[in-house]
């Protein structure tokens, strides 16, 4: 892990707070849903403003960061 942290690393949350994506500096993520902590976990890869997710079960998803907002699977997440 380098001393420089990617600007997208951190917590991203839907406006209602129900979905919370924590992008960890080691290339892993932890997604909470409602009161269920760690509902999904896996790896992510950033390519420019695009993110690809692969959860630990093999499910894949992606998203894009546009003007400081993460658009992922029909959801809008903002930095917490």
UniProtKB/TrEMBL annotation:
<dbReference type="InterPro" id="IPR020955">
    <property type="entry name" value="Uncharacterised_Atu4866"/>
</dbReference>
<protein>
    <recommendedName>
        <fullName>Agrobacterium tumefaciens protein Atu4866</fullName>
    </recommendedName>
</protein>
<dbReference type="Pfam" id="PF11512">
    <property type="entry name" value="Atu4866"/>
</dbReference>
<dbReference type="InterPro" id="IPR038646">
    <property type="entry name" value="Atu4866-like_sf"/>
</dbReference>
């Amino acid at each position: 892990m380098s001393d420089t942290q990617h600007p997208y690393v951190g917590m991203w949350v839907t406006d209602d707070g129900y979905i919370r994506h924590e992008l960890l500096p080691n290339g892993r993520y932890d997604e909470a849903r409602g009161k269920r902590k760690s509902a999904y976990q896996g790896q992510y890869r950033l390519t420019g403003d695009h993110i690809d997710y692969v959860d630990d079960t093999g499910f894949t998803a992606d998203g894009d960061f546009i003007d400081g907002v993460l658009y992922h699977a029909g959801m809008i997440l903002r930095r917490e």
